[in-house]
């Protein structure tokens, strides 16, 4: 049926079986090139024998986020990185995986985990030593990974730094193995795919060892794994759920945080505002003495509770949203699993896959004047209120039926890390040669639905500082 539909929109050439080959070679580059080529119009291409239509502009936005399009089916097919990790069906009964995941990060859980998570950060950054330079996309990312593990795995992993590192390596291989070819040749044993299979197996083994040990010792723990065991999930389901939650929690938060530090570096006035805000936040608690470790600051912050952190760092919120607007340049994905719909005169048949490019909203000058400038003020409550009249204008945290369930968690994780790093160290981002960053580095767009790292390496250069007001 899909082949019968004659589309009245620009359509990329495609070949029987694989569809449009360029999509598999460089998905991000291909979509960006098509966006130029189609001159603001809808366009289509094929992934194997499936039609993909990329909706555009405001009419596209309204259709994409309001109609009952299927979220999981879209990503499962079109986002090669997630194909093998996503649950094949919804979690159990009528509980969606997003709803189920939301349970693990509800307010009481976050509040309870807050002191532990702050200590997790301080333990890791205390190993950085007095001064040095480190790759933020590895080391700041590791902090996000360690925090996400608290929310998705078990105490046995989180309390053992070697397990944190082992899980990070497994996760890297899971992601690296999900190359675009896995969509066309799911059986083809490329080294990356074999790596991913083995990584999946290792994750399964690590989890199964913990589950067996708890059973043998009759031991229960207060952690996400225990909830999954108590719910009666099989080991395969538990492994998939943990991998999925880590993907959702880590992929964006880690890299967004690194980009936030980069944007602040290139915009020193904002960096100063954030730094002052953090000093004020810490000083409201008590006078803090110079310490060789950030652990005492972590304790003070923990005692203030999550709401103090959230309420007293509004500049960080502005900067995070503006960073997201500028770097979240991929496409959203869906599938029309219901009746045919019409968008801008084009029939979107049942079964068609759909994409929506974030840039159509994030870089529209009528929504965001001078859209390529970093202006965190755009996120003041008044400016946000004004934009509300235009309908959905920001996709950084999703929109419509699938807004990000982890937004609060992600913000809190990023804030905890920035506050502790800035409280403990004088820190700047420099280029590979240790020179100050004068302009924004380019992003390495190797994945479609992911905030990607920089193309050239950057470094986080730090020096421990006497704590307190400068
Ligand atoms: C900076 C970090 C993050 C960003 C930028 C982000 C962004 C997004 C976006 C844009 C969506 C919507 C996708 C779509 O409609 O196609 C989404 C959905 C989702 N996010 Fe996040 N996210 C972040 C962190 C997290 C964290 C930490 C978690 C969990 C701990 C999480 C869990 C989810 C889940 C479960 C969904 C699916 C919601 C649904 O199906 O209704 N995210 N996120």
Question: What does this molecule look like?
Answer:
The structure is a single chain. This protein has 470 residues and is an alpha+beta fold. It has a single domain (2-464), classed as Cytochrome P450 (Cytochrome p450), CATH 1.10.630.10. It is built from 20 helices and nine strands. The protein has helices at residues 21-25, 27-37, 57-66, 71-78, 97-104, 107-126, 136-152, 155-158, 161-176, 181-184, 191-217, 224-230, 235-266, 268-283, 295-304, 306-311, 314-327, 359-362, 381-388, 407-424; strands at 43-47, 50-54, 131-134, 331-335, 341-343, 346-348, 353-357, 425-431, 458-464. A four-stranded mixed beta sheet has the order 1-2-7-4. A three-stranded antiparallel beta sheet has the order 3-9-8. Strands 5-6 form a two-stranded antiparallel sheet. Helix 6 runs antiparallel to helix 7. The longest helix is centred in the middle third of the chain and has 32 residues, at 235-266. The chain is globular and about 65 Å long. Residues 71, 98, 101, 105, 151, 248-249, 252-253, 256, 324, 332, 395-398, 402, 404-406, 409-410 line the site of protoporphyrin IX containing FE (HEM). Residues 71, 98, 101, 105, 151, 248-249, 252-253, 256, 324, 332, 395-398, 402, 404-406, 409-410 line the site of protoporphyrin IX containing FE.
């Amino acid at each position: 049926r899909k082949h019968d539909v004659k589309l009245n929109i620009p359509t990329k050439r495609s070949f029987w079986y694989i569809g449009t080959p360029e999509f598999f070679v460089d998905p991000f580059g291909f979509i960006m090139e098509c966006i130029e080529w189609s001159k603001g119009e809808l366009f289509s291409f094929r992934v194997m024998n499936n039609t993909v239509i990329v909706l555009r502009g405001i009419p596209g936005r309204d259709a994409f986020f309001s109609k009952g399009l299927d979220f999981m089916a879209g990503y499962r097919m079109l986002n090669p990185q997630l194909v093998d990790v996503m649950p094949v069906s919804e979690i159990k009964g009528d509980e969606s995986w997003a709803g189920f995941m939301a349970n693990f990060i509800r307010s009481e859980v976050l509040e309870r985990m807050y002191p532990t998570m702050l200590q997790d950060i301080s333990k890791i950054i205390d190993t950085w030593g007095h001064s040095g330079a480190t790759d933020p996309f590895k080391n700041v990312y590791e902090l996000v990974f360690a925090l996400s593990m608290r929310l998705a795995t078990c105490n046995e992993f989180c309390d053992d730094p070697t397990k944190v590192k082992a899980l990070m390596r497994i996760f890297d291989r899971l992601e690296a193995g999900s190359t675009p070819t896995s969509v066309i040749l799911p059986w083809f044993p490329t080294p990356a795919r074999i790596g991913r299979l083995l990584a999946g197996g290792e994750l399964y083994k690590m989890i199964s060892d913990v589950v067996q040990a708890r059973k043998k010792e009759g031991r229960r723990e207060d952690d996400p794994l225990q909830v999954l065991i108590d719910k009666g999930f099989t080991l395969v389901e538990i492994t998939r759920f943990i991998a999925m939650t880590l993907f959702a929690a880590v992929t964006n938060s880690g890299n967004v945080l690194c980009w936030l530090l980069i944007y602040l570096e290139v915009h020193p006035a904002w960096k100063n505002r954030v730094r002052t805000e953090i000093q004020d936040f810490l000083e409201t608690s008590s006078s803090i003495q110079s310490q060789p470790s950030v652990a005492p600051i972590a304790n003070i912050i923990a005692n203030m509770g999550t709401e103090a952190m959230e309420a007293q760092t509004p500049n960080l919120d502005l900067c995070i949203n503006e960073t997201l607007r500028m770097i979240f340049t991929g496409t959203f994905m869906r599938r029309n699993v219901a009746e045919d719909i019409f968008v801008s005169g084009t029939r979107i048949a049942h079964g068609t896959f759909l994409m929506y490019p974030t840039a159509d909203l994030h870089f529209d000058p009528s929504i965001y004047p001078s859209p390529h400038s970093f202006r965190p003020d755009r996120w003041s409550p008044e400016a946000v209120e004004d934009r509300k009249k235009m309908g959905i204008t920001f996709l950084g945290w999703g929109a419509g039926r699938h807004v990000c369930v982890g937004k609060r968690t992600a913000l809190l994780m990023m804030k905890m890390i920035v506050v502790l790093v800035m409280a403990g160290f004088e820190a700047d981002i420099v280029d590979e040669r240790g020179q100050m960053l004068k302009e924004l580095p380019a992003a390495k767009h190797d994945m479609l639905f992911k905030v990607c790292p920089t193309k050239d390496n950057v470094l986080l250069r730090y020096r421990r500082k006497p704590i307190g007001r400068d």
